[in-house]
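Colleagues,

For the teaching module next term, I've prepared a clean inverse folding example: a structure given as tokens, and then the sequence designed for it. I'd like students to try predicting residues themselves before seeing the answer, so please don't circulate the second half yet.
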């Protein structure tokens, strides 16, 4: 269960992952320092470097990680579900976000993926690697160059070298992670400096498979929970929150209490609210 299988979409043959290292650009700062300060600077730099990617604190309690369905996730996902778990409005918003934040030629890891990745069709990436629990779903995903099958609740180690990807995506699945702190730390490791991690979700879930902290939370508390996942790993930038709630009022309405109307329809109009929390490794690249 702990071993991941690395499979090309076309042939299902196991491939060996080649670990690559990306040289991190070095920046020079010129300022007046004393001799003692100059001697101490390398030690400070090593301390900061070694701290990056480390888990600073636990976010969830033992109870907060619990699921109602305690059987292995591999059993729950043993048969394929060729459906989209969010509506078209959500998907359109997500694809637009990917179009805005992901550049052509990038290397992308689609974490906890399935038979569709919602990437913009017109954009070509260097490679898109998928991860999930169901081989049949991943094999049907036309955007994946290859994929791994692995239960992240059993083993959080990702079989990729340091600084392997420009972006990591996690779509409507973060609510099932029982060790999110460790997974986010692993994502930090495999991201290139300046790489982005985009976590998107709505109010839908497999209730019995979502963790207690998610099931019992509100829309606001779930957003804050993902923010804390980023904040608990040293080195991620300040998380950016993106919300798009369904509304019957015109776009950009300035009517008093319009946000209450949006929140009401998010729950009762039948359209899925869109939430995304994203952060960059070490720094956000200049546009």
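(Answer key — instructors only)
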């Amino acid at each position: 269960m702990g071993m991941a299988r690395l499979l090309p979409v076309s042939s299902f043959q196991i491939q060996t992952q080649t670990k690559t290292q990306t040289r991190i650009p070095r920046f020079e700062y010129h300022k007046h320092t004393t001799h003692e300060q100059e001697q101490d600077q390398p030690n400070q730099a090593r301390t900061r470097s070694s701290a990056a990617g480390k888990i600073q604190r636990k976010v969830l309690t033992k109870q907060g990680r619990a699921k109602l369905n305690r059987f292995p996730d591999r059993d729950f996902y043993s048969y394929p579900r060729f459906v989209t778990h969010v509506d078209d409005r959500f998907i359109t918003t997500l694809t637009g976000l990917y179009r805005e934040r992901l550049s052509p030629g990038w290397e992308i890891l689609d974490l906890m993926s399935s038979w569709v990745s919602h990437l913009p069709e017109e954009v070509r990436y260097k490679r898109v690697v998928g991860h999930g629990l169901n081989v049949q779903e991943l094999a049907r995903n036309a955007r994946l160059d290859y994929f791994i099958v692995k239960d992240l609740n059993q083993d959080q180690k990702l079989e990729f070298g340091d600084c392997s990807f420009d972006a990591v995506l996690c779509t409507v699945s973060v609510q099932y992670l029982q060790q999110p702190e460790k997974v986010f730390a692993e994502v930090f490791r495999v991201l290139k400096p300046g790489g982005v991690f985009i976590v998107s979700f709505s109010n839908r879930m497999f209730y019995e498979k979502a963790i207690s902290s998610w099931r019992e939370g509100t829309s606001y508390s779930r957003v804050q929970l993902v923010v804390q996942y980023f904040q608990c790993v040293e080195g991620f930038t300040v998380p950016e929150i993106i919300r798009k709630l369904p509304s019957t009022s015109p776009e950009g309405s300035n009517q008093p209490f319009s946000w209450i109307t949006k929140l009401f329809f998010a729950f009762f109009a039948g359209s899925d609210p869109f939430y995304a929390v994203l952060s960059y490794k070490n720094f956000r690249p200049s546009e």
